[in-house]
Task: structure prediction
Amino acid sequence: MITLQSSDKDVFEIEQSILIQSGTIKNMVEDDFTFIPLPSVDTETLIKIIEYMKKHADKTDSKEKNIKEFDKDFMKKTLNELFALVFAANYLHISSLLELLYPSIADRIKDKITEAIRQIFSIRCDFTPEEERRIIMDNKWAHEGTEIEGTLD
Amino acid sequence: MKNSTAVVAVAAAKRHKILQHDHDDQQSLIPGLPDHIAQEFLNSVHPFTLFSVCHSWRKLIHSPSFLPYLCLYSLLLPTKPSKDVSETLATFTNSVEFACFDPISSKWMLLPPPPPPPPPDPPLRLLVKHPSFISRNMPIQTVSVSGKLILLAATADHFLPAFPRPLIFSPRMKSWSYGPSLANPRRWCAAGVSGSMVYVASGVGSHYNPEVARSVVKWDLNESSIIGPNGAHDCQCKQKQCCLHHSHPILQSQTIFEEFNVHPSIFLKSSSNRDSNYTCVCCANNNNQKEGKSGWKWEEMSGLKDGKFSREAIEAIGWRGKLCMVNVKGDAAKQGIIYNVGSDTWQEMPEGMLAGWRGPAAAMEEETLYTVDESKGALRRYDEERDIWVEVIEHEMLKGAEYVAAAGGRVCIVGRGGSGIVVVDVVAEPPRSVVVDTPVGFQVLNIHILPRMSQLD
Result:
C-alpha cells in the first residue's frame, strides 16, 4: 500500500498496482518510496484522480464498455474542475487521462466566442484592431446557426 | 525505515518537471501550464478557435504536430486575355495559376511555381484557350492521390502533350517534383485514382493512335525501394506507434476532428484513420526528398475493347476498389464502364448508375459516390443496393457545374463558368451549403481537396 498526501494534508492509502498508472508515482515507488506528498494536488482533485485510476486499473475486455461509460460521465464536470484535473494529470503523468481531457475540454469551448475563451485561459488579446475586425467577421460566418455561449462554464 | 519527507521533496523536484511559471515577455500558450502540455491540449482545439484567440495560438496551426486541415486546390485561368494588341498565339497560353483556398484564414494564395521539367523534356507551357476552339477550354487533367496534386495531361505548344511525365505538388513539403515518364504522353485521357494508384487510360497523345486509345497504365505511388506498402518505413524516431499504418501518438486525440460537424463553415475535417498519406512528423522531412526517386514506373494493365473512351478528357472515379467512368460529359447520351482494380477486368456499369450520371462526379473517401446533375443543379449520392441516385441538395449555382471534389465531409462544386465554389456539408442534417468566392478575374479550371500547405519558414 502507498500513502498519498494532498496539498490540504489529507492522506489516502491506495494499492500500488492501481497507482502505477501515474508515471510520477511509479517512478517513486520504484525508488522504494511508500509515502508520497503531492503539494500540487488538492484533496478534491486527488479524490477524482484516484477514482479514475481505480476504474482504469482493471482493463479486461468485459469491463471495456463500463470504462467507456465511466469516462463519459467522468468528463461531466465544470471547466474549472477539468482544468484542475489537467494540471494534476500532467504533474502525475497520467497520459490516458490527459488524452481523455483534451478533446473533452476542446469540445466544450468550441462554440464559445473568442472573448470567452480568452477569459477562461487568461489570455491577452494581441491582435491589432484591424485583425480583430476581420476575425469577428469570419467568426460570424463560421458560427452561423450554432448557439454561441458567452458563459464561462 | 521511513524516508524523510525532505528527501522525497528534493527527489521529486529533481526527477520531475513541476509546473513552471513562464516569465517571458511573450505570454505562454496557456498561463500556468508548461508550453508543451498546452500545445498537446491545443492540438485538439478547432483551428478556427486557434486562429482567433491570439498570435501564439494562431502559430500552432502550422506546427508539425497539428493535424493539417483540408484546403481547396484549384487551377485558375485569368478570364481577361492579355491586352497585347498583336494577339498572337502566345497570348492565348495564359499563365495558369496554381492556387489554394485556406478555409481558416479565408484566403486564396498562390502555390510556388513549378520548376522546369528535367531535360530533355521541353519547358512547361499549357495551352488552354485557342482561336480554333472558341467556346471550349482545352483540358488540363489533374488527380489527387496520397495527399498530393498531380498533373497528368494537357496540351502544350503545337498541340503536343504537355506532360511527358506527371508533375507532382506536395502540400506537406510545399514543393514540386516529377513522376515516371509515360511511354505515351497524352493531351487528354481517362484519369483516376484508386488507393495509392494512378491510372491513365485511353485518350489521345500528339495524334490519335488506336493502341493508345485502348491502353491502360497504372502508377503505384507506394511502390518504391524506399517506402514499402502502405507507406510503412523505418521511422527515424523509432516510436512504437508511428507512421502511416498507425497514427502518430499525438494524433490519437485528433478524433475530435471527426465530430466537427456542427460548424456550417467550410472547414473540412481530415480523416485521421484513412490518411495513408500522413507520415509521422519526424520522418516527414527526411523521407520526402528520397520518396519515389527509385522504383516509380508505369505498368501496363488490361486494355479496353475499343477506343470509345478516347474522345474527351474523362475522370475515372475511384470507388470501392473500382474505377467508374462515362465517356461523354454532361447530360448527353453516354456509355459507362467500370474497372475492377483487384481483378484487372472491365465490367458493365449498372444501368441506374449510368442513367443518373449527368455531370461531374467524385467519391468521398472512395466510399460514397456523388454526382451533380448539371441541368437540374442537383447533388446526388449513389445508393449501390438499389442502383439509384438519391438527392442530397439542389442549388441554383450547381447548374452547369463542371468540377466536383469530395473529402472531409464536404462536397465542393465549381459553379458554371468556373466562378464560385459551392461547399456542401453532407454530414449535417439537413445538408447545408456555403459559397466560397473565387478570386476576381479568374476562372476555376478544376478543384481538389488536400491537406493545407505547411508553412516552411
The CA atoms of residues 255 and 272 of chain B lie 7 Å apart. Chain B touches chain A through 46 residues (CB under 8 Å).
